[in-house]
Amino acid sequence: MGIESMGLRESKKHETRKLISDHATRLFMEQGFEQTTIAEIATAARVAKKTVTNYFARKEDLALDHHEAFTASLARAVADRAAGESALAALRREFVAAVEQCDPVAGFAGPEFARMIADSPTLTARLRELHDLREEALAAALADDAPATAPVIAPRAAAALLAAAHRLLFQRIQELTLAGEPNDRIAAAVAPEATYVFDLLGTGLGEDLPAAKA
Amino acid sequence: MGIESMGLRESKKHETRKLISDHATRLFMEQGFEQTTIAEIATAARVAKKTVTNYFARKEDLALDHHEAFTASLARAVADRAAGESALAALRREFVAAVEQCDPVAGFAGPEFARMIADSPTLTARLRELHDLREEALAAALADDAPATAPVIAPRAAAALLAAAHRLLFQRIQELTLAGEPNDRIAAAVAPEATYVFDLLGTGLGEDLPAAKA
DNA sequence: GCGAATCTTACACTCGTTGCAAATTTAGCC
DNA sequence: GGCTAAATTTGCAACGAGTGTAAGATTCGC
Fold first, then answer.
1. CA of A40: how far to CAs of A27, A115, A151, A212, in Å?
2. Of A4, A147, B18, B102, which is most buried by a Cβ count within 10 Å?
3. What is d(CA B7, CA B10) in angstroms, rounded to the nearest whole number?
């Protein structure tokens, strides 16, 4: 159902929310997250400070709002995969595709956005939490498909490793973004690294990888 | 060098820090982390509130103070391993040993302590950060041993997977502690799960593990 | 002792967050 | 259109974490 199908009250709520969020994002980019106060955002959006905190329970939510797509991405890829495809193959395919189209879900954000997160301990912590939620959702999806004979830890173990791979590559993309690399060069650099990481996930660390001590 | 070898000033600083930390820990256990205020801790320790925040920059540090041993544990196990032993083998051995002796570094804490963390979003976030720092330290240690021919992502990839395994098993121990299990039963339950997880790390997820979709 | 360095303290302040009740706006109905 | 009920916005007050500052107290090196 779209905006047209809701009443005036509900539609105004969406407007107000977007109004606040837009001003917040702009100020965060201009001044940084920690340097911007909620009172400042309220003034810019011409609403009461309490209205801001009514819509967004925590300040972090003003910057990292629509995380639903992010936290659900891995679980969805697993749940939606074709019959016979392994979870690893599905997640690998998903990541490669996301890199090709520079999907924000994979870590592609503007340099300003990446800078905003990197400069803020609060946002960095929140992002860590989102990675965790993503892993939990993945574990639940894997548990749905797990054979009854598998140990109970199996889906969580697979989720931990798969989510760790995605998180590492996400951070790598962020890192290159912060270094000023354009998206196409980032994609070119990360693609072979993704191949390496997912191959590693498939075949294991082995007994002497990355290296036995000389 | 021990306490006896330092001057009066330094020795009093240690006393004051321990005094504050002890009162804080006691109050956290009695009332919960979020329910205890810094002012309350200061009053209990008979010092100024500012003295508390001088010693402990953040409230979380009052509960999770000596994290050095934790964040360095994986990197140290890798750096100290015998010649010829793989990083995976060393970390596996390290974890098994930690479980056998119910080491807090592996996740063994009293039920009250586990409850304190689980009930506090602040402490949970801080613990997440400590897991992250531990992974970073491990990546640095692995990078020291990595052959020059390996891709730059290799040590970070191995660290991400190895740290994810340790984090998962840590959480599992916490979870069983919260469920009221005694340490010996936790160790008995986690040992085979550790075997499973580290085997998985060694051999990889494969192409149809944990399961291809039916 | 005595000056210098350091630690402790009190005070004031900013900011995120919450609770509450009044004022405003919208919804549903006559 | 007008009226009541519900929801939203607002202002105000308060709490708690964290910071800066300057004065007082303690310790150090000589």
1. 9, 20, 52, 55
2. B102
3. 6
Interface residues 49-108 of B with strand D (CB < 7 Å): 49-50, 53, 57-60
Taking a C-beta distance cutoff of 8 angstroms, is the pair A141, A79 a contact?
yes
> A180: helix, coil or strand?
coil
Per-residue pLDDT tens digits for B113-155: 999 999 999 999 999 999 999 999 999 999 999 899 999 999 9
Total tally of structural domains belonging to chain B? 2
d(CA B12, CA B19): 10
Last residue of a domain, one of A39, A63, A87: A63
For testing contact with chain A, the best of B153, B162, B195 (most A CBs within 10 A): B153
Answer whether any strand D atom is within 7 A of the Cβ of A50.
Answer: yes
pLDDT tens readout for residues B14-59: 999 999 999 999 999 999 999 999 999 999 999 999 999 999 999 9
The C1' atom of D2 and the CA atom of A11 lie apart, in whole Å, by 25
Instruction: Tell me, yes or no, whether B213 lies in a domain.
Output: no
Cα dist. B208→B116, B161, B173 in Å?
40, 19, 28
Structure tokens that stand for A174 in this block: 């962020």
B57 and chain A in contact, CB less than 8 A: no
Q: Which domain holds residue A157?
A: 68-203
- Write phi, then psi, for A32 (nearest 5 degrees): 95, 155
In this complex, the residue of A129, A165, A192 whose CB is nearest that of residue B128 is A129
Q: Are residues A117 and A139 in the same domain?
A: yes
Contact status of B203 with chain A (Cβ, < 8 Å): yes
Residue A141 CA, nucleotide C19 C1', distance (Å): 40
Question: What does the alpha-carbon distance between residue A197 and residue A175 come to, in Å, rounded to a whole number?
Answer: 17
- A12 CB contacts (<8 Å, ≥6 apart)? none
Which residue does chain A place closest to B90, by CA atoms? Answer: A212
Q: Are residues A128 and A49 in the same domain?
A: no
